[in-house]
Amino acid sequence: MTSATVYDLATKDLDPPLAVVDLAAFDANADDLRRRAAGKPIRVVSKSVRCRTLLERVLAMPGFEGLMCYSLAEAIWHAELGTTDDIVVAYPTADHEALRRLAASEKARAAITIMVDSPAHLDLVDAALGHGHPEIRVCLELDASWRPLPGVHVGTRRSPIFTPKQASTFAQHVLARPGFRLVGVMAYEGQIAGLGDAAGARLNQLVIGWMQRRSAAELNSRRGEAVRAVQAVTSLEFVNGGGTGSIESTGADAVVTEIAAGSGLIGPTLFDGYSRFTPRPAALFALPVVRRPTRKIATLFSGGYIASGPAGASRVPQPYLPTGLKLLGFEGAGEVQTPVTGRAARTLKLGDRVWLRHAKAGELAERFTHYHLVMGDRVERMVPTYRGEHQNFG
């Protein structure tokens, strides 16, 4: 029985569009992440999942400890629900209401650590809460980009703290400010974790692989110096690094105490191009055939679920099952219709399903209120995504 037949059979009583998560694939991906982490705990990146049931499932597995949320409001939601008592917010917040909710909840304050990288972030917290506010746990973000030459920046644009001296100076500033406790350091190596080294032309693969090896070596040295400089000022509870694509190199850094990962649980198309691992596609969505404009083309309902990031073909969802389908270059995936062509398109009938994969892991959950959790040829249960729980964290 082919995978397409299995998913069709499991959801035969449901009307598409619909989204499924293959639990066997999800669990296998979790096992592979744990294997690659080689004993270091993995902090689950919530933005790559955006479904509380799935987050609870992976947090119950050995080797996974705590959440990394993308929004303070999201972190407070999880803390209040008791999803976990260990949450790091990966991005600085300017949400005054959420800060006031954090300060007002002893449970949330004990569980949540917010991200900071400048005195202005501390000023913002003070402005939202007033002086004399309860102690807020903070994490210093170290910029993990690679800067091999003056003016050359390879990686995401994040923290202004780049050198060990800058990290030490800011740590001292935090310690001198009442109402804050510095408990961690984070460095996200996006140029390694989020960039496949086995995609595209061979020359491109060689260049990316070379860059990532050089970048990892530089970062592991600089991160170690920065962490030791901060530890000379104060003790730390954790040092976080990583991402699904950099688990091996991040875990090899002795100062890193935990690794952040999430996309590897889902296996979206952007993670097909890595030499170090191959996640199984765990999240799929089905669209119905609603037109046959020609013998060689079948048109699907809706489907334009374009992923964030630089606009281009890599951000477009891709037909997965039945095999042998592709999008039309002129139309792509559209707001209300998505034509597909290829040998398999000739046999598709009105009402048949085509299964597609999203380019990014968590963003599919923003399109559906529920995931159908599939085990084998049956739906085990239907669970809400963040949207299904009426949560929208931006």
Automatic annotation (TrEMBL):
Alphabetized InterPro entries for the sequence: Ala_racemase_N, D-amino_acid_metab_enzyme, PLP-binding_barrel
Pfam families listed in its UniProt record: Ala_racemase_N
One GO process term, biological-process aspect: D-serine catabolic process
Record domain Alanine racemase N-terminal: where: 21-192
GO molecular function: D-serine ammonia-lyase activity
Gene3D superfamilies per UniProt: Alanine racemase
Name this polypeptide is given: D-serine deaminase, pyridoxal phosphate-dependent
Lineage summary: Bacteria, Bacillati, Actinomycetota, Actinomycetes, Pseudonocardiales
